[in-house]
């Protein structure tokens, strides 16, 4: 990839939501309450755990034997976070975490819930779903539905032909380096992220495709990274078209059932009835942790590889420079130069995976704001480092 020109828009939407629930059609809420960014904190606390009551979705079916997560050695109750001692309860309160789980070597070293949330409930993931969606691209390559991610995306979504996506590869959409112009500023009611799910789709066309094919090109493909939630939604259309299956059915078939997730998940759908692949899988915290463990173990489910042999090595390695030292962007994964990787969603959702330490940290939450770049966000990064340090020291309770 050529040296990248970096464009970063730090907005409510830029870390991870494809959806203001009222902008995706088929909403189950009154018009005055459809934009989840304007829900009160109490509304978010209640609705994040039952998003399927407020927006349509498809079931990601679990089934068969559940992948057990045995108890491991208890984790310390106090860590040094950002140079200061911080108890786990104090950290969860500061993050407004509804749930936090730490796995090491596949064993639960810490699991706790708050905000009236419990282990049998689901919580919506927001842009954590992006990393699951990109993994389904790898599965589709492994299964032969997609020949190569270096194929032009127009080969599989011909409706994009004659648009800014001519000559853009699947790889470039995965890394958000298509060169197609996009405005992710959610504060601007005329921005792309505010408009793209709320347009009337052309007949027989997904609403995302209908919008994205009208966007102009601003840079050569592969030369400029811009966070584009709309492109993650194109990934979902790509997988569905290639496989002939809904994303929910394909996720169930390839991962949810064979890996042994504990419960069904829900994937919110858009105005066209297709899953919003950039957002809003609702699942148990333990199943988010299981997905992290699935990635940590190399994408093996029921003893069989789900992904091509080299997929994860590329997907979880920096493919685009995002302008943050030590960080980057892979195939819809946020990367760290130490080899760790994260799926991130607004309001505090996340899955952090550290292969070197065989470590998975999954969190659900409801931050006071969608993004907290000056407080909760940096504290979470410091917490990840603190957990890594505790693992290195062999610390136990």
Structure report:
- The protein has one domain (5-393): Beta-lactamase.
- The protein starts with a strand and ends with a helix.
- The model is unreliable at 1-27 (pLDDT under 50).
- α3 packs parallel to α7 and α3 (128-142) packs across α8.
- Helix content is 27%, strand content 18%.
- With 397 residues, the chain is of the alpha+beta class.
Question: What labels describe this entry?
Answer:
397 residues, Beta-lactamase, four-stranded antiparallel β-sheet, 17 strands, alpha+beta, seven-stranded antiparallel β-sheet
Write a short abstract of this structure.
It contains eleven helices and 17 strands. It has helices at 41-47, 88-95, 128-142, 170-174, 192-195, 207-212, 229-243, 247-259, 285-296, 311-315, 376-393, and strands spanning 5-7, 57-60, 78-81, 84-87, 97-104, 107-113, 123-124, 224-226, 265-268, 281-283, 300-301, 304-305, 327-329, 334-336, 341-345, 349-354, 359-365. The strands form five sheets. Strands 6-5-17-16-15-14-13 form a seven-stranded antiparallel beta sheet, with helices on both faces. Strands 2-9-10-7 form a four-stranded antiparallel beta sheet, with helices on one face.
